[in-house]
Give the backbone structure.
Amino acid sequence: MEISPFVHDFKQKEGGQEISFWDMIRGKLNFSFLTPNIETFVNLKINADAISEWWKYPERLRNASYTPLFIDEVFLRAYLGPVNIDAGFRKLTWGKADSFGPLDITNPTDYTDLKEITDLQEVKIARPMVHFTWNTGDFSKLEAVFIPNFSGDRFATEGRWEPLLYSGMLSVAEEGIARRAFERYGISTGALGPDGFSKVRDNLLSHFSDPSVFFPSTSALDYFQTGLRYTTSAGPADLGFQYFYGNLFRPNVTIGGVDAFIDDLFPKLNPLSPNYDPDYVGDADLLDPQVKYNRYHHIGIDYAQVLYGFNIRSELGAFITEDYKGNDGSVQNPFLAWSLGFDRDLFWGINANVQCDQTIRLLHSKVGDNPVFDYEAGKDMTFSRLTMRLSKKFLRDQLETKATVIWDIENFDCYVIPAVTWTSGDLEAELSAGIFAGRESGELGQFWENSFVRLALKYTF
């Protein structure tokens, strides 16, 4: 169980929304049952929102939709000699990176709450899958996975964790339409006067008010995913090789019908036009937002070894999409991704864990310059993230202090998480905080108002 108040919530102005205790509390229950040949895992999360509704409206206790628990992960594992079979809603980890790595690609990520972003198992979204493991030797195994459908990364579409991916969709559409209109008619939106484009903007806002309606249904077998992974040892080094065929977790968003919309709108907003109509807002139905989860082939390799006291881990992956020429704006360009990290005990019992990740877009020079026609327009060729953690234990390892920093280099923003953990037998208590800082347009810096403190308790029995 944990309670996590947000710092800026205590600065509510008069008339602001009242802070509820249930808005700050979270919890989970994990169970496992073991027999000689079968193991069962059931992980549940506590739905504090449902409890809050019960508290306010007791009559809703009879409504099954207000359940206090929901399934986070549930699967069976069968042990059949050298072969293990898992089936169910599973969170699977591939690769050797401690943080997010380019080879850990079987499960999407839940970004609706970034408090848990450093806990990979916590933020992964379980998917229905069948997973086979064949132990081919003392230090070697072959894995195969089949996932019958697909789900992308999960983002909040409203509230404190809504990303610019959604909230900025209107401004991206407006900017791209204005740029295209200038190319076709030589007219800028500013030339239409202070109110010339405001009603059009309101019309676009209503059309893009719920971006989730544009997303395709991915529950059919057409979106199946599958992969193979082989790990082994060669002397002092651990090696892994894998292949995966699936969909990129983040959608590619473009807008069709822009020229038709402009040709219908701007002649009527031009004061010199015989069809001038200052009240015309345009036919937004001519616009066709297109959201795609791009198919790709993935080839990856990872390596781990202890060298001079450094526990080194590295990964390299190639993501090959269908945009082989790099000029199809509706398909993400192929890209490379790599990760390099290490951990090492330093002086005074301090342990350092550092990992650098980077993606590199291929054929970057072919990317267009208008975001409504090419989703990658205006984005950097590389995205680099540095994750660093320092920790030290005291009092016979009962007390641990640690500080984690996630720094997005190109965006120049960061997320700082200091924490103190006390462990006594089966009970663990942690006091931590989260601080977002940096450029407000970055993936992390945009949440600068979501800094928080957290008290969490964990009991194992």
Remarks:
- The first strand starts at residue 2 and ends at 3.
